[in-house]
Backbone:
């Protein structure tokens, strides 16, 4: 295959991957607005307010959690820093709906904390003698989501603080600015693009979350999407609401970019050393704050999950879990292999082709990662159902039996959604590994008369095989954890590990699926370990 | 000249460790008002650490740093970097990339916005950067960034300016003019400065006084000529430029003699005691070649660098490096020559 054919292949596949987004956009202009108008006149304004409140609070809490600890770990020396720099990432492995369940169990009226307080202070429940905060509301859901989402911002902000380097802050101090002024005037403004990217990502995750808000009975736009599609079967209304959500994400990005103007933030520095050596109460405070986040976001939920598992050992012999595990595994493997193969095609094409557009397939196919997964699931359904309806009509017209929902009614929809959603993960891993292969190797192989395929299979793939397995593994784990898209797209009577656990959560019986939840957490730990190793190498 | 009355900055036996390794070892220095001092030395000799200690960015283990008589740092006391009135310029200039040139210069000025703007504009005019006020640092060349960094550092009226390898990121052809310009600005501002480099050319052009550092200590301090012609250590002699090492003995007349070249017209410094086993350092430009068909030395290789021509000459069992001005007639390889030594003060070290 010559360079041109590789370019066509890359463009064709990336076009397939952006097709859902394009159809979503088109569908949102479709005239079927009866349900949307009805929703708009009844519940949608409340849902929008709830969504704005939820996302704003998640962003505020995430910033309050992540930015101070990113700064502490990047710029200060304090007891335990070495361990906290990776421990702080552990909550990434914890699904938000599991954390929500665990904390509700802990802080609810019937939970151990309130029971102990009532017994201790002899509160009379009947006459409302005491006040205790309510966890099942918008701020409660926001804290739960922020507890597991803050590591995204922590990771990005920490890297940004590290790359900013000590020099800028040292100069700032030599120009008469205190550490706090230097943080405020130099460090944070410089990290703004990174912080915004982190926040947009967290915002998109919060926007797309269904499980946590549903468990807390907080109705958001995601609820509206689920109701429109699963309740009323209106793809058009679901698409319109999805577009509303997407506009929100795009608007934040656009405002940040516009405000940035000509400024360049990049100031890469690699000789980093800790700038502030904390001691006394400052050091204790820093360690305590980091420890609190790790405890609340990971250790406590993990311990409670473990205790559920031990308590309900007899439930874990559930034979259904084995089936679920197996079908989740093959589904995730399939999606991971396809995603990684596509990433190789994109990166290889970009490498061999001199055409200006060669870099675009990879970039375009990565864009969906910023799309909330609920939105993505709806977007995937639109072209599929359209194709199925057209084909069914054609089949019937030709006198055959209609093939039915052979795409949207099967695991194909799920695999396709996973591929679209996680293409960016594979692209990132594969692209960076291709960059590490010297271009002179290509020239040497070509000078020896090797074709593009020979170059790819005999030089590149053996050299980047570790990254290939990493990409496969990362996508595999993401697929295993993915819930909102799986809930919307799974075929009838088909469960993934995440939907299996979620069902128990929504039935208030997580204890019975605690072992499955632990499996999800354990799987989620792998990317965290990878991130830690990469972070250590960079620093 | 540094006298007790005009000392601006004084380092007394300061010791600093970095990651449990000693980097500065009882370092002492004195910098006079309006003086530009250069810390010269190889990588790892502790030059940058000394600057950071002066700026208050690293704590002292022992010793004391005083500025105009006031103790800034000691083992028990440390004035915060922002309260010292000492500006620092790093090798990468560390201009704030999210601020324009004017905003960078205004950054440290503690005055109303209008006063700060006026002052910053005046400084930018001084460093010839007035046309770039609204420009961001990423849009400037290395030399322009350097000028902005100087203006920003001077904007706070620092009592001392520290410069860490400030010319290493500047194009070679701009460097000399930039050094002269910045030197002029510092002198106009009466700002004492310490700058760090490993380039002797930069040190000679920019500084009033040099201090050569090795293993965290100052080995020798003085004006450029004294370090060049009277180096106190072999490593300093080599750092000041390449040369030839000859095994010599001191004669009764106070001269030196060596095999093949005989008695050399180089006077032995009489302020020092020498043993009989010495080695002498002779620079290539202190040797002269003269074509002679019966000469006892042979040209074996030569290089040309524009301003001078270097000859590699074999004399008996020794090989010498000789430089001549390039417009002299070239001696072909293999030709026989006489080698003579120009009269100068001998640079002698004990043989190890």
Residues:
């Amino acid at each position: 295959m010559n360079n041109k054919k590789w370019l066509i292949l890359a463009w064709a596949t990336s076009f397939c991957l952006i097709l859902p987004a394009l159809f979503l956009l088109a569908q949102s202009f479709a005239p079927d607005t009866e349900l949307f108008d009805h929703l708009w006149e009844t519940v949608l304004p409340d849902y929008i307010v709830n969504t704005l409140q939820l996302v704003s609070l998640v962003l505020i809490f995430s910033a309050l959690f992540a930015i101070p600890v990113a700064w502490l770990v990047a710029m200060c020396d304090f007891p335990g820093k070495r361990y906290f720099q990776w421990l702080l990432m552990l909550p990434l492995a914890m699904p938000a709906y599991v954390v929500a369940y665990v904390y509700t169990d802990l802080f609810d009226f019937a939970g151990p904390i309130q029971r102990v307080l009532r017994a201790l202070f002899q509160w009379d429940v009947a006459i409302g003698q005491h006040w205790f905060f309510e966890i099942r509301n918008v701020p409660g859901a926001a804290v739960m989501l922020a507890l597991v989402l803050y590591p995204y911002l922590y990771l990005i902000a920490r890297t940004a603080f590290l790359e900013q380097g000590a020099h800028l802050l040292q100069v700032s101090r030599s120009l008469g600015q205190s550490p706090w002024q230097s943080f405020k005037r130099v460090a944070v403004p410089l990290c703004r693009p990174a912080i915004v990217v982190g926040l947009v990502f967290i915002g998109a995750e919060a926007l797309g979350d269904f499980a946590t808000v549903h468990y807390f009975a907080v109705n958001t736009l995601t609820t509206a999407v689920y109701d429109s599609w699963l309740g009323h079967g209106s793809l058009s209304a679901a698409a319109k609401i999805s577009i509303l959500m997407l506009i929100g994400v795009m608007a934040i990005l656009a405002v940040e970019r516009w405000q940035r103007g000509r400024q360049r933030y990049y100031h890469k520095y690699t000789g980093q050393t800790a700038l502030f050596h904390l001691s006394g109460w400052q050091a204790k405070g820093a360690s305590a704050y980091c420890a609190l986040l790790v405890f609340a976001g990971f250790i406590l939920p993990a311990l409670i999950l473990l205790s559920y598992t031990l308590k309900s050992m007899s439930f874990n012999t559930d034979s259904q879990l084995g089936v679920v595990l197996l079908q989740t595994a093959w589904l995730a493997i399939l999606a991971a292999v396809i995603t990684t193969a596509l990433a190789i095609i994109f990166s290889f094409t970009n490498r061999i082709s001199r055409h200006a557009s060669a870099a675009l397939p990879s970039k375009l196919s990565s864009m969906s990662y910023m799309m909330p997964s609920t939105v993505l699931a709806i977007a995937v359904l639109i072209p599929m159902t359209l194709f199925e309806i057209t084909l069914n009509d054609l089949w019937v017209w030709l006198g055959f039996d209609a093939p039915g929902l052979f795409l949207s009614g099967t695991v194909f929809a799920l695999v396709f959604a996973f591929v679209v959603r996680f293409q960016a993960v594979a692209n990132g891993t594969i692209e960076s590994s291709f960059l590490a292969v010297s271009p002179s190797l290509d020239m040497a192989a070509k000078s020896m008369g090797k074709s593009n395929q020979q170059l790819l299979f005999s030089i590149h793939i053996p050299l980047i095989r570790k990254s290939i397995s990493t990409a496969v593994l990362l996508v595999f784990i993401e697929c295993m954890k993915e819930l909102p898209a799986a809930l919307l797209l799974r075929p009838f009577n088909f469960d993934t590990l995440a939907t299996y656990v979620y069902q128990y959560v929504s039935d208030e019986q997580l204890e019975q699926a605690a072992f499955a939840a632990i499996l999800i957490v354990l799987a989620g730990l792998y990317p965290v370990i990878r991130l830690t190793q990469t972070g250590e190498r960079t620093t | 000249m540094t006298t007790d009355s005009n000392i601006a900055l004084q380092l007394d036996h300061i010791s600093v460790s970095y990651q449990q390794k000693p980097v500065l070892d009882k370092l002492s220095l004195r910098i006079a008002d309006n003086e530009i001092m250069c810390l010269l030395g190889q990588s790892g000799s502790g030059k940058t650490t000394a600057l950071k200690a002066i700026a208050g960015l690293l704590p002292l283990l022992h010793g004391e740093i005083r500025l105009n008589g006031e103790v800034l740092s000691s083992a028990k006391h440390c004035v915060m970097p922002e309260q010292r009135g000492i500006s620092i310029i790093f090798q990468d200039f560390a201009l704030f990339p999210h601020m324009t040139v004017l905003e960078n210069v205004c950054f440290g000025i503690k005055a109303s916005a209008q006063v700060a703007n006026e002052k910053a504009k005046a400084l930018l005019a001084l460093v010839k950067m007035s046309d770039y006020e609204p420009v961001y640092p990423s849009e400037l060349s290395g030399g322009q960034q350097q000028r902005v960094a100087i203006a920003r550092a001077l904007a706070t009226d620092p009592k001392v300016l520290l410069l860490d390898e400030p010319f290493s990121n500047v194009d070679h052809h701009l460097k000399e003019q930039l050094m002269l310009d910045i030197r002029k600005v510092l002198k106009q501002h009466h700002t004492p400065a310490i700058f760090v480099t490993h380039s002797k050319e930069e040190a000679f052009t920019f500084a009033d006084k040099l201090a050569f550092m090795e293993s965290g200590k100052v080995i020798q301090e003085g004006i450029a000529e004294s370090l060049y012609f009277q180096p106190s250590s072999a490593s300093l002699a080599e750092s000041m430029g390449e040369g030839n090492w000859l095994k010599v003995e001191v004669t009764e007349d106070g001269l030196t003699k060596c095999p093949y070249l005989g008695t050399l017209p180089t006077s032995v410094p009489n302020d020092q005691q020498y043993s009989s086993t010495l080695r002498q350092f002779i620079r290539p430009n202190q040797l002269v070649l003269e074509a002679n068909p019966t000469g006892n030395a042979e040209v074996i290789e030569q290089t040309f660098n524009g301003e001078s021509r270097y000859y590699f000459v074999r004399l008996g069992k020794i090989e010498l490096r000789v430089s001549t001005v390039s417009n002299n007639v070239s001696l072909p390889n293999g030709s026989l020559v006489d080698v003579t030594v120009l009269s100068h003060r001998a640079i002698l070290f004990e043989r190890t």
Q: What stands out?
A: The interface with chain A takes residues 52, 55-57, 80-90, 92, 94, 96-99, 107-108, 110, 136-139, 152-153, 155-156, 158, 162 of chain B (CB under 8 Å). The first strand of chain B starts at residue 7 and ends at 18.
